[in-house]
């Protein structure tokens, strides 16, 4: 038997070899994982999930981790030794998942209900008491389809085959089913209804709708109305077999997550012009008043999530999340207080804004030093290609916003409030976003709005009507508009 074992660390993708029997704590400490209770097996913060290989649970782990967690492969890395080859998912490296705890008005109902925000990357479910509005449970997790690609287009490509579509549908239905199952013990009364919102691709894959029309221009939805099921049809064993509703899409790549966001921001009731943007791989944009609402989507690419950036990573331990200029020098904040090992979306926007301020990056996006990269905080640096990736992402959003506002006959100054949804929208520095031309609105008009999709799903669960809102929304297909390319190229430059 070899003296060495191999360890793969995900989602970072590091592979290493260590001597058999090495404490995992030693191995992970070198990669910036923190051990808040000093490795005494109390805080659970050092959890790893065994994706392959064997790590039998210790008696201490049995007392600290729930039986379901143990069954899912979770262990405490501070208590474990590397005795065999392992692939591990490090909990501290997971991207933060936004739930929602904002107060909201509701009409009391009967029993309990569940609201679900089904995202391309993450899932969040809340169990609610419909009489009191109390949140009885929250569960979140990564979308189990992630192994089939990080972005919507890769999932759609897989979903084009009957087998791929079936597999992705099963994965997501059972993933949400597990979150709900996990919360059932907290339900005071029977669950009467489950409301799910998500982008168009997630809607189609969950509901078993053909994704083919989403795979090519003009990116139409195959079926965008309200889809209803019984829990048992989805393979969920819930007492009373409640009704499950996936709220309707708005068109193209604008899903019910944005419809829910409109309910949450009450855009459809507003006499003043409001906007809502979900800054993701697929940027979803909606502006409107109670008179008229217009939405669109634009392919921003993965730069806001650290994707296609040489040292890009999710907002997790070791990621540079903020960059500022202090006395002419760059100052960085690293998540988890660890040594920097990459840069996440908010850090990238800050770093480029700082580079523009210091004259290190030109308005056209060129690195002015003539060198191949721009050091943010050693060893983390941005390459010329990284800056271009950000230009592509921010250009797509800015062009989409400009075209939607143009069609409404409005300008940025007419917008009373712009809400930013999604994790990146909540953490991005508004001044930096304005400096690079991503969000061209005065800072005081821009408001991070948390998880508006989940809040809207909860409102729908409590009976807020949504069908009349959906019917009033006009969908603008940017891909079909000949002006888009020209405006996109213009918006790629930095102000
Ligand atoms: S470091 Fe606290 S439980 Fe492992």
How is this structure best described in words?
With 495 residues, this protein is an alpha/beta fold. The chain is globular, with a radius of gyration of 23 Å. Among the domains are: 90 residues, Beta-grasp domain (Ubiquitin-like (UB roll), Roll); 158 residues, Nucleotidyltransferase, domain 5 (2-Layer Sandwich), CATH 3.30.420.480. α7 crosses α12. It contains 14 helices and 24 strands. It has a 6-stranded mixed sheet, with helices on both faces. A 6-stranded mixed sheet has the order 23-22-14-15-16-24, sandwiched between helices. A hairpin with a 2-residue loop joins β17 and β18. Bound molecules: FE2/S2 (inorganic) cluster.
> What is the CATH homology-level superfamily of the domain at 112-269?
Domain of unknown function (DUF4445)
Report the span from N to C terminus. 61 Å
The CATH architecture designation of the domain at 112-269 is 2-Layer Sandwich
The hetero molecules present are:
FE2/S2 (inorganic) cluster
**Number of discrete helical segments:** 14
CATH class of the domain at 112-269: Alpha Beta
Q: For the residues shown, what is the average pLDDT?
A: 90
What would you call the structural class? alpha/beta
CATH fold annotation of the domain at 112-269: Nucleotidyltransferase, domain 5
Gyration radius (Cα, Å) is: 23 Å
